[in-house]
Amino acid sequence: MELSDKEKAAIIEYRIQKSFSVLIEAEDNARLCHWSLTANRLYYAVFHMASALLTDKGISAKTHTGVIGLIGKEFVQNNLLNTDDAKLISRLQNMRQSGDYDDMFDWSENDVAPLIEPTKKLLDKMLKMLKAAK
User: Can you tell me the distance from the alpha carbon of 45 to that of 24, in angstroms, rounded to the nearest whole number?
Assistant: First the structure.
């Protein structure tokens, strides 16, 4: 289904807002030392921003793996995001998977806390890319 420019802009804006709302949830969970939840929310903050970037390019994916793969193909391979960005995205995706689905497993502060600032920087970088495209 083809989106109108107005629909596309509304979806992108919603996903940006969602990304930063989820980032606040990550920070709130970090203050409460809920590290698996923090990792989950960091991943979703990036996921929503990545989805906004893809929508801006007229690309959609049906799965989380598809979104992450397309970010690699469209943005990392074209040097719009660097390999450190890609590693962070992959790490957050893996952490979310493990934290959500692995039995007898929880992330620790040492695992998650160092990823908060790099995630914020990545979100800011992605937001700048979206604003530059306008």
Answer: 9
Write the pLDDT tens digit of every residue in 53-85.
999 999 999 899 999 999 999 999 999 999 999
Residue (of 38, 62, 40) closest to 51 by Cα position: 62
Structure tokens at 37: 């939840």
Whether 13 and 89 have beta carbons less than 8 Å apart is answered as no
Rounded to two decimals, the pTM is: 0.94
Question: Is the Cβ–Cβ distance between 124 and 117 less than 8 Å?
Answer: no
| Start-to-end CA span in the chain (Å) | 22
Helix (H/G/I), strand (E/B), else coil: 79: coil
> What residue ranges define each of the domains in the chain, with the CATH number in brackets?
5-133 (1.20.120.330)
Q: CA 20, CA 62: separation in Å to the nearest integer?
A: 22
DSSP per residue over 16-83, as a string? HHHHHHHHHHHHHHHHTT-HHHHHHHHHHHHHHHHHHHHHHTT---SSHHHHHHHHIIIIITTTSS-H
At 29-49, the pLDDT tens digits run 999 999 999 999 999 999 999
